[in-house]
Write a structure and sequence with these properties.
The chain contains 23 helices and 11 strands. It has 616 residues and is of the alpha+beta class.
Length: 616
């Protein structure tokens, strides 16, 4: 406990950094490291030392200021993987306003699953309530994936226009088919300006949150606001039914003059089922997506995080989301799907679809067993087409064209990409097809959805993890040396042998690394530098960033007026004595310039003039 003896070693610093970056509180991490060392008395430092170390670490991270730290983070990411994309918008005073970035994995995800995007700005970053914007979507397992992120200064139309244009630039100008946003006029203006051909839908989760604020006191029934407005989202499929039910609701609650409901009705084409059923949505329920992701953000991010800490913990969130996808992929490799009905169609589809999509298709197949084809008609407007009438919860019509393609009036396949039970009924009973045709299996929902190679906006193939081989070697070495440390610590002899051999091994490794580094510096230094400059031409490099100098005003003694006057007097006396030049420097000047004594100023001192005496 003596201050002179307390010190945090390099290995302990690594442990503290890992615990802090993993979100472990100070008290828990100090206790964990103490148990690993054999007790707190074996650590060599106190908890206050660990707290001071973390504070110093945060200060060092912000040595270049928050803006410089962000640019340095982007530079490091671009050096690790040239496909990393980032952009910064400046205002008229050249201050950073909006920032967008997308790592290579985000760009790859968007290339495969960027047909439907949800844009969300609900989460506020810091105490100033600066919006944190994310582009999110679904993968082939219906897991949440992130396509891009942005730190925004405000939520104006100009900021959103810049952000959407930058997002499309990062994604090689590939537009989504549908984009979900909240009920914001600035967002709507930006979407219509940047992506005029993209179907713009309102996020039902945000709409319900606004409804609870404006209408909760009016709709006081058993289900409240969600029951009254929820049926307008999913129940009515025809526009006439929707309008009639809406007018009946206004009359029932006497809400003809309600301005909020009038605004919602004017935007009905962006959220009501009679209109949204004609656009592709991949089955995305924005309620579920927004609620899930915002809940995760609150678990990982806090309002008191600085920007360096924000990026660290946001990467933790990304790793968690991506790890869930790895778990789903691993489950596909060793688990067979649970088939309720042993038929050829389900067996074959189970080998193609992911688990989540197969379960959806299987539910449709089981529902098809209870359906009945009640009639077969010729299409009046299209003579080559046949209509099948299906008795279900409501009468459905399945149209079959001359090429054998099916389309159902429920439009489930056109919206979600999974064949509906009505079409399956026609395939089985009317067309005697026991296998699902390939045109009804979208690659987006299959196990090989990521089979294609993705290129960045420069046309280069993207590597999601260029350091994968190095990370694999590191993990295997950690596993090996953890086992050695665990076993060797049991006896003194094994401990001493391990220390001796480990020291020799470390010396050998350091020598090999130094030799390798020297060879690269001599032989390949220039070529690698040129290649690195070419590969990272898009990186905003914080060259010449000056560290923030913190002056400790408490250490400067306040001088009195007498001391200040004496200092001024000394300065005047010094200036009146002329320029003091060292004699050895004057001798050097004389040897270089013999005519210098003739032009010697009169203000030079006598000692300097003596150096130019004729005797010298």
């Amino acid at each position: 406990m003596l201050p002179s003896r307390r010190k945090i070693s390099a290995s302990q610093c690594v442990q503290i950094d890992l615990a802090h970056d993993s979100g472990i509180p100070l008290r828990s991490s100090y206790e964990l490291i103490g148990k690993e060392a054999g007790g707190r008395e074996c650590l060599g430092y106190l908890k206050v030392d660990q707290k001071n170390y973390l504070r110093t670490r945060r200060q060092n991270m912000l040595a270049f200021g928050e803006a410089g730290s962000i640019l340095k983070y982007f530079q490091d990411q671009a050096l690790q993987n040239p496909s990393f994309f980032h952009a910064v918008q400046l205002d008229c005073e050249e201050q950073i306003t909006n920032i967008f970035w997308a790592d290579p994995k985000m760009i790859i995800d968007y290339a495969h699953f960027g047909d439907v995007v949800t844009f969300d700005t609900t989460f506020k970053l810091n105490r100033e309530n600066r919006p944190f914007a994310v582009f999110i979507g679904f993968n082939n397992h219906r897991e949440v994936i992130v396509f891009g992120a942005a730190l925004m200064y405000d939520e104006t139309a100009d900021s959103f226009i810049w952000l959407f244009e930058t997002f499309l630039e990062a994604m090689s100008n590939k537009h989504p088919q549908t984009i979900f946003t909240d009920q914001d006029a600035a967002m709507a203006k930006a979407v219509s300006f940047v992506m005029p051909n993209v179907y713009h839908r309102l996020c039902t989760w945000h709409m319900m949150q606004n409804a609870l604020k404006h209408m909760n006191s009016i709709f006081r029934g058993p289900g409240g606001v969600r029951q009254v407005l929820g049926r307008f989202l999913d129940e009515y499929e025809k526009e006439e039914e929707f309008v009639m039910a809406w007018n009946a609701m206004l009359d029932e609650y006497n809400l003809r003059s309600n301005t909020w409901l009038q605004r919602i009705f004017d935007l009905r084409e962006k959220w009501a089922r009679p209109y949204t059923r004609w656009a592709w949505s991949a089955g995305m329920k924005s309620t579920q997506l927004s609620e899930s992701f915002n809940s995760d953000l609150k678990d990982y991010l806090r309002s008191d995080h600085n920007l360096v800490q924000f990026f660290t913990h946001f990467e933790r969130l990304l790793d968690e989301k991506r790890y869930k996808e790895r778990e789903a992929e691993y489950a596909l490799s060793y688990k067979l799907p649970k088939i309720k009905v042993l038929v050829k169609m389900l067996i074959e589809v189970g080998k193609v679809y992911t688990k989540t999509i197969f379960e959806e298709f299987q539910e449709e197949y089981v529902d098809a067993l209870e359906l009945c084809i009640i009639d077969r008609l010729d299409h009046l407007q299209e003579p080559d087409c046949i209509l099948y009438l299906i008795a279900a919860d409501r009468l459905r019509q399945v149209k079959r064209d001359r090429d054998g393609n099916l389309s159902c009036s429920c439009r489930l396949f056109e919206m979600r990409g999974v064949l509906c039970s009505h079409a399956i009924k026609v395939l089985k009973d009317a067309m005697n097809i026991m296998e699902i045709p390939s045109q009804y299996i979208l690659k987006r929902w299959t196990r090989v959805a990521r089979a294609e190679v993705v290129q960045d906006y420069r046309g280069r193939d993207i590597e999601a993890d260029p350091k994968l081989e190095k990370n694999t070697r590191y993990k295997s070495l950690c596993s090996l040396f953890n086992k050695i440390a665990s076993r060797a610590s049991e006896l003194k002899d094994t401990y001493e042998v391990s220390i001796e051999q480990g020291t020799k091994l470390l010396q050998t490794v350091e020598g090999m690394l130094q030799f390798h580094t020297s060879c690269e510096t001599v032989g390949m230094g220039e070529s690698k530098e040129k290649q690195g400059c070419a590969d990272n031409e898009n990186a905003i490099k914080p060259k010449g960033l000056k560290k923030r100098i913190v002056y400790d005003r408490r250490r400067q003694r306040i001088r009195s007026s007498v001391e200040k006057a004496l200092a001024v007097t000394r300065q005047k006396r010094h200036s009146s004595q002329g320029v003091q030049v060292p004699p050895h420097m004057l001798q050097y000047l004389l040897s270089q310039c013999p005519q210098l004594p003739n032009s010697m100023p009169a203000t030079w001192n006598a000692a300097a003039a003596a150096c130019f005496a004729p005797s010298q």
